[in-house]
Specification:
single chain, 145 residues, alpha+beta, Nuclear Transport Factor 2, Chain: A, 35% strand
Length: 145
């Protein structure tokens, strides 16, 4: 029997993911991850990390010093079926209690699968975005590939 929390929806697992990120809580972060061998994580500007040991170490390094983060999510979209859900969103992350200009937002894709112990994240891919978030709103051409 697993001692990890059971997330009954992908949305619940995602809320736990961002709560752990905001609190820089390594154990809570890793509780959201699937124990599958093929889990993958890409931090903004980082390498593709495969497997729980590499992912755990990356979060351990990011959480060193326990930074307190403020995270706001926007532009959330979802594609799902009974066993898998893909969330795409924009993360607005700043250090709490620090008066510095906010960095550009981060475009993220989170993939969750449903297993015996509820929903777990199997992929987190985050990439820096250019300053302009909505090319259509600014009259710029939209490039889709």
């Amino acid at each position: 029997m697993s001692s990890k929390p059971i997330y009954t929806t992908a949305t619940e697992a995602e809320a736990a993911f961002y709560d752990a990120l905001a609190r820089a809580d390594l154990e809570a972060m890793m509780a959201v991850w699937s124990e599958d061998d093929e889990v993958m994580c890409v931090h903004p500007g980082g390498l593709r990390l495969m497997g729980l040991p590499a992912i755990r170490e990356s979060w351990r390094q990011l959480f060193h010093g326990k930074p307190k983060l403020k995270i706001r999510i926007s532009q959330h979209a979802e594609v799902s079926n009974m066993m898998m859900t893909v969330h795409t969103l924009v993360e607005h992350v700043v250090l709490a209690d620090v008066e510095t200009p906010a960095p550009p937002p981060v475009a993220a894709t989170n993939v969750y699968t449903r297993g015996a112990y509820g929903w777990r994240i199997v992929v987190h891919h985050a990439s820096p975005t250019p300053e302009a978030q909505d090319p259509l709103a600014e009259g710029l051409p939209r490039t889709v590939h």
